[in-house]
Amino acid sequence: MGEAPEIQLQIIVQENNKDQNSTDHQTDGGSSQSTINQRRSYKWWLLITIYTLFLLAGQSVATLLGRLYYDKGGNSKWTATFVQTAGFPVLIPLYYLSAYKTSTETTADCMLYSLGLFYLPVSTYSLICASQLAFNAFFSFFLNSQKFTPFIINSLVLLTLSSTLLVFQNDPSGSAKASKGKYVIGFVCTVAASAGYGLMMSLTQFCFRKVLKKQTFKVVLDMMIYPALVATLVILVGLFASGEWKSLDKEMEVFKLGKISYVNILVWTAIGWQVFSIGAVGLIFEVSSLFSNIIGTLGLPIVPVLAMIFFHDPMTGVKVISMVLAIWGFVSYVYQHYLDDRNSKTVEV
Known about the structure:
Layout (H helix, E strand, L loop, with lengths): L2 H69 L5 H6 L9 H6 L5 H17 L2 H7 L2 H13 L6 H15 L15 H33 L4 H26 L5 H7 L4 H28 L2 H10 L3 H9 L6 H32 L1
Helix pairs in contact: 1-11, 1-12, 4-8, 4-9, 5-13, 6-7, 6-8, 6-12, 7-14, 9-11, 11-12
């Protein structure tokens, strides 16, 4: 009878030792997991930075080269539309190293952007494109359950006013081809293209989250290559059906910078748009369509300033006010993002 308490005591001691070892193991595992998450966080921010640089650089270069094409003698809207999607083969090597978006809509959207850039000064065109943020937020509200706060609403209102203000200005020196009537056409086409682009970005996020449900870079490339392939084929049909292909030889001959520059401008414009696409779709994949659009809006001051330097676009008072409103709207959204991040950290603590 005396041995029973001793046996029970030994069992209790052994169980306590097991519990202590289990606790130590869990602590080590938690520390290891924390280190892994920290490393992933660093990699994630590095990836976001790369995507952001791609988006801003591609957007600025492609927009400026597109305007240069028109200014120096280019007239083919279908060619300008073609280069917006035809650069997708440069992504194929990335595809092997490592669609649900409507291709017809992609084609129409690219054509509307081409018409807007043809009729508008590049600085005006870039500022009007800010309206795509408002459209993106509107569609994201219904498709992706985007939440609206006072700061986000303020951002959308300011950006909408920023683009709408430009239709009331007289800017005859910005483009010799743009009469008042064609200026309005360019404005309408650019706003319509911005609406279509906002919808496509919201649909892209919806596909990533609800349809594809895969976390790989291959998925990002799928969402770029397949729609671009189909859109390029549709644009080629439009190029030949419109008869514009017959005048391409003559257009190249009379191009003010020469044949080589003509080809280089088109090639680098196509590459620029693909670099932009990598950044834009990558940010949608990693964060959201609205965040991607906000980063695109961040590039608004870049293009007008570069246009003023290289194309001598006048920086009128209306454009300055429009730019200030656009920047104000961007800062308003960033502040909301800061508040959300601070609140999430407070909840974790």
